Amino acid sequence: MQHLMTRLAGLRAKLASEKILLFLDYDGTLVPLVSHPSRAPLSGAVHRLLAKLTRLPGVDLAFVSGRSLADLESKVNLKRVFYAGNHGFELKGANGNRLSPPWNILCRGMALLAPQISRAFRGFRGVCIEDKKFTLSVHYRGLAPAKIKPAFKHLESALKKAMKLFPVSIRMGKSVWEICPQMVCHKGTAVRQIAAAVKRFRGPRVQCLYLGDDLTDEDAFRELGANAVTVKISPRGSENTGARYFLRNSRDVFLFLQYLYRCRVEREETL
Questions:
Q1: Are strands 20-24 and 207-212 parallel, antiparallel or unpaired?
Q2: Domains along the chain with CATH numbers
Q3: Which of 11, 132, 246, 252 could form a disulfide with 237 if both were Cys (CB 3.0 to 4.6 A apart)?
Q4: Could you report the per-residue pLDDT of 14-61, keeping only the tens digit for each?
Q5: Which helix (H) or strand (E) holds 67?
Q6: Taking the alpha carbons of 99, 25, 58, 200 in that order, is the dihedral positive or negative?
């Protein structure tokens, strides 16, 4: 991968395209990864910069996260943007309308599953269970390295019993196991649906950008393909990924967003 900030001159034409759609992951991208998901507020500087981007002509923003839609909206707190929560199970358009069905069956199934998983991990210190209504997250960032493998075996055992009630699968994330219904729904399907909605309104020629740090973002990288500017947030840029570029951390992301904002402002001034 190439470091994005060293390739900005060659990418300027894409960044200054008439219409752009910027997809942003939240945890590990806009904010650093922390021990508990509740301790990851968006900084004032980042929020102000994102708000300025939303006011620019020809710019659409979409926030794509494993967090629940309600949690993601409360953290980002911006209007006239797209939200994809729960890895795409919950979608909301820039006009505030939901783009995804209510998934009532999924809610009932996960409601049966959540207490079973919580009980199964009651004795594990360093494990946090996050019930997101449509999916469950088992965070193990506080778990000692030697206990991660036994904890995963324990999760598989607990799910084997629960699967009799409701079929689910485990998706690997950064220090988190995502328990999702066995349906074809992920960040790739989310960006496909959002991009289609934007193109219906803006026209077919929309330049897509996607910034994300997690394994679950790989579905989005694959979906967007070679024409998109895909960026993996990775300290060394040596991970096996479908992204073309990398940034090291959320500080790098902030610097890139500042550059993107200046690029768009200069474009408007020359028109």
A1: parallel
A2: 2-101+185-270 (3.40.50.1000), 104-181 (3.30.70.1020)
A3: 246
A4: 999 999 999 999 999 999 988 788 888 999 999 999 999 999 999 999
A5: none
A6: negative
**CA of residue 129 relative to chain centroid, distance:** 19
Check: CB of residue 29 under 8 Å from CB of residue 13: no
Give the chain's length.
271
Among candidate residues 16, 33, 62, 27, the one with its CA nearest the CA of residue 223 = 62
User: What are 31's strand-pairing partners?
Assistant: 27
Give the H/E segment covering residue 71.
helix 69-76
* CA–CA distance, 153 with 23 (Å, rounded to integer): 34
CB 60 within 8 A of CB 24: no
- pLDDT tens for 68-117 read 999 999 999 999 999 999 988 899 999 988 876 666 666 777 888 888 88
| CA–CA dist 216, 25 (Å, integer) | 10
The residues that bridge with 138 in the sheet, in sequence order, are 129, 177
